[in-house]
């Protein structure tokens, strides 16, 4: 019988030639091989036969693809994988050097600086992989190669592929993923749902061993080691090596916590702690150690009083008289957030966990981008939550392990302890305010055009719960809260004539009841309905969940809450009697501004602000660049009308007086009229396309009516073609058509697919059409010939893109990329179309995004842009935490 090497060489003939065996690990045998095609040495790893039998070829090869695109200087890449003569193999670069395990076997301990440098590099690599949804699961010295003095992680994701593909069959056969000394407690107990915290634990154990010379838990058998991991005392490197800095020891102790929730939320936080001399954790702080100044210090100072309040309350609950004899007092504490993390005053979303122990808030990331932070009251530091850039409306799951967010047009769920985030609803506009059902099985959200909807929390098809009542003039419903038992909900929606109303709906029958004027309703287990009135006062009223009725008068709980123009307020309540709210002036205002190509911003007219939202706000410059047309929201009626501003500091005049929603204007080539969407046709159930003189005179003329929904429309530069988009974008439908009014009534299909195609823009010479499509599963910018769009298309955005706008020169195309930055693309758009250099101009986090259309325009000389800057007024905002808030209403 041929040996395994002979069989492999025969099966891999022409691809690889094995030279010799390099070693064996727990999952694979490693061979040195020649990559014949590329003339290089590689490490060819063959899965152990017993493991391959359990996993299965098809599933292993499918799962291992997850790691193929990881590109990081401290991660060994995956070259190839496959099956050969029933052997499952994967191929990685052959690295000259030794493993960290070899180094520790020889030197026993490493210098402190070198150990910290290695751990920091590995933590940064882990953070990169975790942000791409990949967990290693088997971090250990043998999997860390030392090449030119730098660590490189090998076998990245192999354990994930084995664990995912094999599922429960691994434990049935006695096999396991992980090495005992570096297994986290959750791995040691057989929990298969491991995540980021598992890798952080293993790295902490490796760093401990580099410093001390032995893993944190040792024993004569694997069972003895696992027993200590689960129940052993906390390990401290300083106890064995006094030269270990306090912050390094604190970081190790935090990474080795028994509960995943007590470890670092992300590997990047571990890396930062290792480099911060002031970082402390756990017992050392309680013992009174003096902390140096670092990123965590301002938060510790700001929340010191809060810790005292909670400490006194906890001690009293243990040693004081029984609760019935001494009622708990109401306490209020101002919560300080470090300036470097502080949320935008007009977009400071936050949520409180059901048990009241965790605050999640929208702050600022290390690159200046909006992102979520997690702050536990029993800790002195907040940590960023990965994969939450640009997140809005966060709400924690009932078990406190996940957070649902809105990013752009998507509703997504992000695990707090790592793992792969999931998109529940991707295509469309106007998504708002997701909330969990009490059992965590459903996520409800509001759609500005459809109403209250829900989608399974694990993923699935959305369904409408409460429809928009177009006959009553409703535009959208928002801010829903699902009541205990999941049979009812409360929500707020705009009232005709201005303001908001709170309603309750029976989710089984669909019956809706009006409750009271107000916004942002939230049910409290104390039996109250909390909501905000028109004077920005937080009120609490007794509420009957079964009858869906208020049973008593509302009483004030707090005054001066921050409230946005769309009714979104800022407070959160837990099931344990804690309340967090934010004070401040009303936000939601937008300032039209000029933005240079380097990102320098200047308001068009100092002090000029407007109200709007991503769906119906829109703006466009006249052909000569002297006038700006934009859609402005009336705060009293919630209606949108078109206005024209003489630039820069000239008068602002109203153009439309018909209908309630007038939006997405485009100028005629001579600058005399505007073509726009409007709901003024009372016979239509959706918007039609109209045109009107730009000075507001005359009457609006109907340009196009379709039996299906119209969403965009414009004339070609020469005025001969009318290009429009139709289809119900609320359910992900959108197709682009064209016709020649007055010449030919035939409608030409430009882009009509099973996907959402929208946001079309015609080049100045009229030869090309840019548009957005989600045909690949994400929004991308394409360019096709016009009007013969079916003859081909070319991808412009390499990593996601929306809102294409042509430069007047025709030699550039601008778009908003997937990282929320404005990109300028050099293009050849004469007889043929070609894409050239792409340059990122500046980030767009401070400017209003477009809900399915460009939310900016370019000046006549192509050197600056007009945008809607999110106004940062209301600097006097404050976050307040209230303990036992319900004692006062009672």
- Termini Cα gap: 84 Å
Radius of gyration: 30 Å
- Structural class computed from helices and strand pairing: alpha+beta
Q: Helical stretch count? A: 16
Q: Which residues sit in consecutive blocks of at least 5 with pLDDT less than 50?
A: 165-178, 285-326, 470-477
Second-tier CATH architecture of the largest domain: Orthogonal Bundle
Beta-strand share of residues: 35-45%
Going across the major beta sheet, what is the strand order?
A: 1-2-3-5-4
| Secondary structure: helix percent | 10-25%
Profile the largest sheet: 5 strands, antiparallel
Mean pLDDT: 82
The count of domains is 3
Determine the CATH topology of the largest domain.
Answer: Transferase(Phosphotransferase), domain 1
What global shape is seen?
Answer: globular
Total DSSP E strands = 58
The CATH superfamily of the largest domain appears as: Transferase(Phosphotransferase) domain 1
Explained architecture:
The protein contains 16 helices and 58 strands. The chain is globular and about 90 Å long. The protein is 16% helix and 36% strand. It is of the alpha+beta class. Strand 56 (856-858) and strand 57 (864-870) form a beta hairpin.
Give the helices and strands, then pairings:
Blueprint: H1 4-11, E1 16-24, E2 28-35, E3 40-47, H2 49-55, H3 57-64, E4 80-84, E5 87-93, E6 98-99, H4 100-107, H5 112-131, E7 144-147, E8 150-153, H6 158-166, H7 169-172, H8 185-188, H9 196-212, H10 222-231, H11 237-240, H12 246-255, H13 267-274, H14 283-286, H15 297-302, H16 304-319, E9 331-335, E10 350-352, E11 358-364, E12 370-376, E13 382-384, E14 392-396, E15 402-407, E16 410-415, E17 422-425, E18 431-436, E19 442-447, E20 451-456, E21 463-467, E22 478-482, E23 488-494, E24 500-506, E25 512-517, E26 519-524, E27 528-532, E28 538-544, E29 549-550, E30 555-558, E31 571-573, E32 578-583, E33 589-596, E34 601-603, E35 610-611, E36 619-621, E37 627-633, E38 640-646, E39 652-654, E40 662-667, E41 673-678, E42 688-693, E43 701-704, E44 710-715, E45 722-726, E46 735-740, E47 744-751, E48 757-762, E49 768-773, E50 780-785, E51 794-795, E52 801-806, E53 812-817, E54 821-829, E55 833-843, E56 856-858, E57 864-870, E58 878-883
Antiparallel strand pairs: 1-2, 2-3, 3-5, 4-5, 6-7, 7-8, 9-58, 10-11, 11-12, 12-13, 14-15, 15-16, 16-17, 18-19, 19-20, 20-21, 22-23, 23-24, 24-25, 26-27, 27-28, 28-29, 28-30, 31-32, 32-58, 33-34, 33-35, 33-57, 36-37, 37-38, 38-39, 40-41, 41-42, 42-43, 44-45, 45-46, 46-47, 48-49, 49-50, 50-51, ...
């Amino acid at each position: 019988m041929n040996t395994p090497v002979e069989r492999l060489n025969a099966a891999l003939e022409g691809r690889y030639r094995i030279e010799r065996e390099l070693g064996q690990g727990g999952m694979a045998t490693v061979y040195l091989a020649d990559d014949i095609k590329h003339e290089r040495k590689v490490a060819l790893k063959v899965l152990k036969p017993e493991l391959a039998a359990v996993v299965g070829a098809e599933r292993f090869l499918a799962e291992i693809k997850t790691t193929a695109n990881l590109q990081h200087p401290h991660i060994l890449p995956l070259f190839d994988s496959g099956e050969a003569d029933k052997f499952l193999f994967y191929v990685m670069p052959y690295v000259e050097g030794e493993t960290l395990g070899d180094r520790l076997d020889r030197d026993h301990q490493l210098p402190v600086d070198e150990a910290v440098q290695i751990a920091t590099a590995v933590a940064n690599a882990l953070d990169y992989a975790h942000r791409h949804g990949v967990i290693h699961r088997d971090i250990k010295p043998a999997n860390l190669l030392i090449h030119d003095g730098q660590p490189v992680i090998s076998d990245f994701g192999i354990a994930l592929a084995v664990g995912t593909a094999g599922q429960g069959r691994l434990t049935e056969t006695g096999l396991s993923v992980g090495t005992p000394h570096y297994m986290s407690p959750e791995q040691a107990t057989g929990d298969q749902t491991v995540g980021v915290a598992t890798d952080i634990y293993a790295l902490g154990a490796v760093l401990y061993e580099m410093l001390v010379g032995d893993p944190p838990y040792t024993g004569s058998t694997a069972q003895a080691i696992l027993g200590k991991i689960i129940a052993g005392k906390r390990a401290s490197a300083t106890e064995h090596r006094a030269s270990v800095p306090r912050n390094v020891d604190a970081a190790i102790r935090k990474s080795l916590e028994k509960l995943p929730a007590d470890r670092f939320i992300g590997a990047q936080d571990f890396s930062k702690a290792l480099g911060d001399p002031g970082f402390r954790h756990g017992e050392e702080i309680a013992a009174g150690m003096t902390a140096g100044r670092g990123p965590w210090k301002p938060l510790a100072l700001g929340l010191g009083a809060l810790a005292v309040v909670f400490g006194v309350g906890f001690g009293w609950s243990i040693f004081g008289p029984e609760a019935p004899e001494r009622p708990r007092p109401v306490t209020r504490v101002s919560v300080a957030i470090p300036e470097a993390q502080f949320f935008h005053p007009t977009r400071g979303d936050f949520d409180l966990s059901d048990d009241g122990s965790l605050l999640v808030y929208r702050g600022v990331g290390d690159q200046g981008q909006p992102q979520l932070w997690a702050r536990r009251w029993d800790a002195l530091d907040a940590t960023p939550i990965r994969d939450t850039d640009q997140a809005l409306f966060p709400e924690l799951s009932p078990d406190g392990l996940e957070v649902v967010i809105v990013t752009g047009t998507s509703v997504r769920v992000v695990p707090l302890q790592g793992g792969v985030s999931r998109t529940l609803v991707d295509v469309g506009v106007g998504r708002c305010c997701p909330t969990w059902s009490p059992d965590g099985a459903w996520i409800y959200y509001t759609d500005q055009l459809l109403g209250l909807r829900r989608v399974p929390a694990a993923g699935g098809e959305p369904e409408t719960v409460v429809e928009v009542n177009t006959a009553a003039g409703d535009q959208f419903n928002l801010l829903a809260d699902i009541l205990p038992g999941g049979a009812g909900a409360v929500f707020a929606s705009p009232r005709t004539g201005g303001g908001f109303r709170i309603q309750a709906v029976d989710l089984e029958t669909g019956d809706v009841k009006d409750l009271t004027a107000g916004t942002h309703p939230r049910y409290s287990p104390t039996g109250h309905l909390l909501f905000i009135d028109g004077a920005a006062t937080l009120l609490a009223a007794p509420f009957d969940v079964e009858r869906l009725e208020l049973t008593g008068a509302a009483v004030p709980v707090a005054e001066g809450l921050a409230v946005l123009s769309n009714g979104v307020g800022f407070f959160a309540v837990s099931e344990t009697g804690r309340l967090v709210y934010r004070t401040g002036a009303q936000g939601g205002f937008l300032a039209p501004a000029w933005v240079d190509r380097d990102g320098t911003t200047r308001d068009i007219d100092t002090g000029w602000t407007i109200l709007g939202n991503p769906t119906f706000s829109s703006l466009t410059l006249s052909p000569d660049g002297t006038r700006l047309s934009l859609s402005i929201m009336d705060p009293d009626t919630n209606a949108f009308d078109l206005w024209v501003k003489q630039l820069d500091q000239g008068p602002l005049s109203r153009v439309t007086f018909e209908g309630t929603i007038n939006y997405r204007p485009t100028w005629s080539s001579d600058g005399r009229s505007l073509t726009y969407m409007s709901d003024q046709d009372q016979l239509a159930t959706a918007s039609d396309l109209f045109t009107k003189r730009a000075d507001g005179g005359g009457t609006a003329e109907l340009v196009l009516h379709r039996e299906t929904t119209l969403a965009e429309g414009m004339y070609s530069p020469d005025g001969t073609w009318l290009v429009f988009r139709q289809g119900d974008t609320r359910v992900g439908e959108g197709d682009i058509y064209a016709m020649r009014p007055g010449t030919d009534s035939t409608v030409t299909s430009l882009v009509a697919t099973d996907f959402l195609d929208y946001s079309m823009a015609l080049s100045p010479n009229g030869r090309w059409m840019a548009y957005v499509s989600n045909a690949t599963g994400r929004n991308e910018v394409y360019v096709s010939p016009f009007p013969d769009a079916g003859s081909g298309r070319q991808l412009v955005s390499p990593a996601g893109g929306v809102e294409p706008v042509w430069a007047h020169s025709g030699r550039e195309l601008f778009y908003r990329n997937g990282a929320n930055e404005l990109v300028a693309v050099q293009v050849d758009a004469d007889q043929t179309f070609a894409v050239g250099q792409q340059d990122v101009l500046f980030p767009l986090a401070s400017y209003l995004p477009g809900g399915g259309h460009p939310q900016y325009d370019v000046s006549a000389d192509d050197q600056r842009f007009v945008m809607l800057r999110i106004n940062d007024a209301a600097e006097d905002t404050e976050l307040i935490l209230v303990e036992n808030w319900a004692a006062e209403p009672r």
